[in-house]
Amino acid sequence: MKNAKIYGIIKLSHKLYNNNLYFPIEDSAITYNVYRRLPGESWANRKPIITCISTQYTDKNLKSGQLYYYRITAVNECAEGEQSESLNVYTANVITYNVDGNINIISRQYKQNNIPLIIKNEIPTKNGYEFSGWNTMPDMSGTVYLPGSSYTAEKS
Q: How large is the greatest C-alpha to C-alpha distance in the chain, in angstroms?
């Protein structure tokens, strides 16, 4: 009996892998201001995106595949301190591999916009089946990618 062919599903989702900011405690600080800008924008006259009392901030308003710059200031009862050095954060698209509904068999990859990603060479196995590649659609109507091939799509 010839082995049946199976396809796994490769999915590009817009999740972020780096949206938590951590910054050091400033002894005299009461609060912290978090500033954010995009490439080409100026820091001049920029308002904080948030004032927080913690030294951690989760930015939930980011787009995948985008470069962001952050600066932090400490604020005490007298004044706001100087802005920190810029922290550069690049968000990425997440590639997940789905084999029969299980996305934990092959670890995910992160794809930056405009940069091809090489599909992992790992091949899932199942008795009686031959793996035929990764497909971008669950109904197998999408694009097929073989292990080791170049993935260039920016979204699926």
A: 81
- What would the two tokens of residue 128 be? 């009686």
Q: Are strands 129-135 and 144-145 parallel, antiparallel or unpaired?
A: antiparallel
Residues of the chain whose pLDDT is less than 50?
A: 1-18, 156
| Interacting residues of 133 by C-beta distance below 8 A, sequence separation 6+ | 7, 8, 144, 145, 146, 147
Q: What is the pTM of this model?
A: 0.59
- pLDDT of 155: 59
State both tokens at 95.
Answer: 């590639």
Residue in 10, 53, 16 with CA at minimum distance from that of residue 34: 53
Strand partners, 98: 9
What does the DSSP 8-state code read for residue 51? E
